[in-house]
Structure formats: structure tokens, C-alpha cells
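Researcher: I'm preparing a figure for a lab meeting and need a structural model of a single chain. I don't have an experimental structure, so a prediction will have to do for now. The sequence is pasted below. Please return the structure as C-alpha cells so I can convert it later.
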Amino acid sequence: MIIVPIKENEPIDKALKKFKKKFERTGVIRELRRRQTFEKKSVTRRQQVLRARYRDMMQRTEVI
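Model: Understood. Here is the structure written out cell by cell.
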């Protein structure tokens, strides 16, 4: 359960913005979308390897 403390006389827009940010950080929507379709373990592993390769490439170019 997400609790957003609201100060007195704080606009509802600001409180709503805080709520949205906290909700996004929990990763509920991301997890829901991930679970909507089945993905084979080999495909998941391949994506992880590709992401790791990309991150490694980016780190190497930053150092140079």
C-alpha cells in the first residue's frame, strides 16, 4: 500500500504527482506487462546477454 503524506494546504496536483512517482518506483505496471505474455527462458537469457554486451560497450567508450 502506498502512503503519500500530504502537508496542510498542499495542492492535490502535487500530492498526485508524489503518488505517481512512488507508484512508478514500485514497478507494478512493468511487472504486469512482463507477465502478460510468456517468454521462453532462452529468449530471456539472450536479451540479458545482449543488454550486458551493450552496457559493456558503452562503458568502454566512456573510458576512452
